[in-house]
Amino acid sequence: MNVGYRADVDGLRALAVLMVVLCHAGLPWLSGGFVGVDVFFVISGFVVTQSLRRSLADGTMSFADFYVRRARRLLPALYAMMAAVFVFAILFLLPSDATAFAKHIGLISLLVGNVYLARQTGYFDPAAEQQPLLHTWSLSVEEQFYLMLPLVLYLLRRRSVRMQAVVLGALLVISLAASQWAIGKAQPGAYYLAHNRAFEFLIGVLLAYAPALQGAKRRTFDLIALGGLAVVVISAVMLKPAAPFPGMLALAPCLAVASTIWATPRSSLASLLLANRWVVALGRASYSIYLWHWPILFALRRFDLRAPEWTAAGVVASLAVGAVSYRWIEQRFRYGAIPQRKAAIRFMLAPALAVAGVIVIGKVSGGFLFAYPQAFRIAYSKAEEGTWDDARGKACWEQVAVTDPRRCHLGQPDAVRRAVLWGDSHAYHLLHFVDRLGIDYHLQVQDVAFPMCAPIVQVPERAGDSRYEGNRQRCAEHNANVMRYLVANRSIDTVILSAVWDLYANGEPRADAAPNIHGYLPGDIDRALDETVGQLLKAGKRVVVFDDIPLLPESSVNCPLYNRLRWQREQHDCTFALADASGNRAAAQAVLDRLMAKHPAVSVVRTYGASCTAGRCVAEYDGVPLYRLNDSGHLSMEGSRVYYDLYQSTRPHELEQVFGGRLKLAANSVQ
Which end of the chain is less crowded, N or C, counting CB atoms within 10 A of the terminal residue's CB? Predict the structure, then answer.
């Protein structure tokens, strides 16, 4: 095929970038606009292969020249965008986000940003919106592919064109099969990883080998070219985010755009559409537009500017900023008269060193905390520290064996009355709450909490969510150890049970209900708690149940911290309706109610509603964020302390009824 510049290919780039931008902007009738990236891959494979074949044919092929040219073409605009987004992150995001962002920049610089994203989130998951550089996965895929393609073509250069096409075709089939297999296995990397995308580039690569069709009428080429365009657009309209993609479904738009590229040079109608001056101008700026559109839309979402007029403004801004980037960054650095060695240093080595420096600064400064206001730094340090994060946590948390009571104790160490705090992370995050309780009510408390492990003697044998399967056996062993310890130690008179009951209760009414994420069927947790409490009561123990805390709705996570940012546009109401708390509260409450009805001797400490008044709950108290950083369900270390004050202010007599008279003693810290 013709190896010179083709304006119609830039026209296809314009179509591709518009589909991607409008899809990401949330245009409802373009839900499959993400296929624009697949169009880019096919175009890229075609254009780059033409250039490589030409240089191989005339003996001017140089790997160094190839990679320096790509660096000059791609890196200046990329680093400019990432620098701008990094400044945005420091001003408007949390230090943990800025640190993760700096790490992501480093991985993008190493060409493995797509691998990082594959381990973080699915492309269409709601959490993907929180990744300001989500769109750069495609750049990493492209560069990984081009680390190999020049070498493959170089090794095949002495083979016949037919043999080259056979080898490349075989690689295409292998990649397509790998992609389809990964989709069938629901692998996280099915969307992001290069070997699952290589077949799309290879369609373009093989297109560069295709001969022109001789003797056909112009109308035939019109039908092929326009038909290809139609298939691409139909794919963008019909495909949904839940579609098993890429795999076989990606073949239609990829083969369609390949047919359009092949036929357009002899199609007057397609040339009229794609080689139009304005369309071509948009296509030439498509790379910069692609770079900037996602960060701009991300910024709008960060400020909750989701109205249609704001989204439209974001699309226009993407086009405008992309045009500026193309003119003043891409063009300036791509065609400047810089020797190869200096170009390599300027575009590859220097930015990499700068990124490494930023990562080191972020690491040693605790996430660039020095750049944030003092009020924010104080609140952030309190939210960042969890009860697991100190030396005590390392000794007392996640121990299969029963913990050492000399090391893992709370409250009054010399108290006559002894208790044990038994549960999962929702027991351990109440560590300082229980410590103050023990001090006030003269109680020595030993903690034996274990992660993702309800305080019961019958752990389900079936697997729930795969994340918990590896923990199941250790949980069962831990709980058996705890029960033996409690029964054997008569000096322990009280057992406090605390857990995230919402996640163990299965409220599904159907007889054929599936296990929940922890492997519990309906009724399982009831029977297990009944058996556990029965054994404890038989052993002469008092049983006290903490009924947990509200789980934050997603919109309230980190709310008190965002309100303390320097450039926060407006102060958010960080309270939330109790009815909006996430989790499966109704089922959990029903389980606890049935337990109380069957065992009236069991006492309940109603921690769940302590942070709520008139149906609304707080996420901070006395200037302290209650919940951990980026966590919807666990109290921070300081939050655990102040939750006790909050509880006493709303339930002033409940602890006295459960644990007896309150002693007027000076509060001590956890030993």
Answer: C
130 burial via Cβ count (<10 Å: 0-12, 13-18, 19+): middle
Torsion angle of C-alpha atoms 100, 103, 105, 108, degrees rounded to 10:
-120
Domain assignment present for residue 618? The answer is no
pLDDT given for residue 335 in this prediction:
76
**Residues whose CB is less than 8 angstroms from the CB of residue 86 and which lie 6 or more positions away in sequence, other chains included:** 98, 101, 102, 105, 358
Task: Identify the H or E element spanning 624.
Answer: strand 624-625
- Mean confidence (pLDDT) of the chain: 89
- Look at phi and psi of residue 336 and say left if phi exceeds 0, alpha if psi is from -120 to 50, else beta: beta
pLDDT of amino acid 123: 67
Answer yes or no: is 627 within a domain. Answer: no
Together in a domain, 408 and 448: yes
The residue type found at 600 is P
CATH classification at residue 422: 3.40.50
Number of structural domains found in the chain: 2
Q: Which residues have a Cβ under 8 Å from the Cβ of 600 and sit 6 or more positions away?
A: none
**Sign of torsion over alpha carbons 456, 459, 463, 468:** positive
The confidence score (pLDDT) of residue 570 equals 74
Residue 376 CA to residue 202 CA, distance in Å, equals: 51
Instruction: Name the 3-class secondary structure at 544.
Output: strand
Q: Band of the pLDDT at 667, cuts 50, 70, 90?
A: very low
Parent domain of 63? 7-371
595 CB-near residues (< 8 Å, 6+ apart) = 526, 529, 530, 533, 545, 602
DSSP strands (E only) in 515-617: 542-546, 576-577, 603-605, 612-613, 616-617
In a 3-state reduction of DSSP, which class is residue 449?
coil
Q: Quick one: tokens of 490?
A: 């008569």
The order of strands in the sheet holding 612-613 is 576-577, 616-617, 612-613
What DSSP assignment string belongs to 423-443? Answer: ESHHHHTTHHHHHHHHHHTT-
Determine, yes or no, domain membership for 559: no
Do residues 336 and 450 share a domain?
A: no
User: Is 361 a residue whose pLDDT tops 50?
Assistant: yes
- Span of 79-93, 246-260, 449-463 with lowest mean pLDDT: 449-463
Residue in 391, 435, 454, 494 with CA at minimum distance from that of residue 635:
435
**628 lies in a domain?**
no
Query: How many other CB atoms are found less than 10 A from the CB of residue 660?
Result: 12
The pTM of the full predicted model, rounded to 2 decimals, is 0.84
Pairwise CA distance, residues 644 & 4, whole Å:
74
Exposure string of 258-294, with b = 16+ CB inside 10 Å and e = fewer, is: bbbbbbbebbebbbebbbbeebbebbbbbbbbbbbbb
Measured from the Cβ of residue 491, the count of other Cβ atoms closer than 10 Å reads 8
Find the DSSP H helices in 385-523. 391-396, 425-428, 431-440, 466-488, 501-504
Specify the 3-state DSSP secondary structure of 173.
Answer: helix
Helix extents (H) in 305-349 = 308-325, 331-334, 340-344
Single out the residue in 343, 371, 399 at which a domain terminates.
371
Helix or strand run (H / E) with residue 410: strand 409-411
pLDDT tier, 342 (very low <50, low <70, confident <90, very high otherwise): confident
